[in-house]
């Protein structure tokens, strides 16, 4: 996900801080400008994790397939809740049913049964303890599970962006100063800020599901999970005025 915010200081001159407002008329004549891109990179340890577990059950009719699926799903959901994981979020789209068919040698399709499915997405701030969810899934007869994803919470990501914005702006000014130094010039007032972009540390998408037994075996010996820091890069584009002929004072 890329966060984009647009801000034109010229349009907000009456409400922006004095340090960023346009200079009074007569101080700078309209003329050349320089536009530079500043950036800042910050890191944070992932503080959220999630996985999705799916129950699959077959039956001779939609009702029996849905009933068996619901029974196993409800047992699994209750057992996950009993783990009392901190900051737990449980999400589900309910129970779905689909026809199972086969095609004979003549190309005729016939219904062989029905399959119910129900997926529970489990999210918590206890990254390492999601291994317990995998073991519960294996015990309760859950069929498939997505790989566990670790990521930075929205609150932490917003804090990183806020910390980086002043540094990105300062980096833009430093680059403008370096570019102009060889010409004997210095950047003038800020004319425009084209918002910012933030990349990295987003919530990842889930991978392909794997059999629960295999996932549980992978998780069994895990006592802790070292994920490494997540990176976020914030960039902003700033336009500075350049000294031109001074207009006469009013």
Throw out a few tags for this protein:
250 residues, alpha+beta, Translation Initiation Factor IF3, Alpha-Beta Plaits, 6-stranded antiparallel β-sheet, 4-stranded antiparallel β-sheet, 4 helices, 10 strands, elongated
Polypeptide structure, described:
This protein is of the alpha+beta class and 250 residues long. The chain has 2 domains: 98 residues, Translation Initiation Factor IF3 (2-Layer Sandwich); 103 residues, 2-Layer Sandwich (Alpha-Beta Plaits), CATH 3.30.70. The chain is 27% helix and 36% strand. The strands form 2 sheets. Strands 3, 4, 5, 6, 7 and 9 form a 6-stranded antiparallel beta sheet that branches. Strands 1-8-10-2 form a 4-stranded antiparallel beta sheet. Helix 1 packs antiparallel against helix 2 and helix 2 crosses helix 4. The two termini are 49 Å apart.
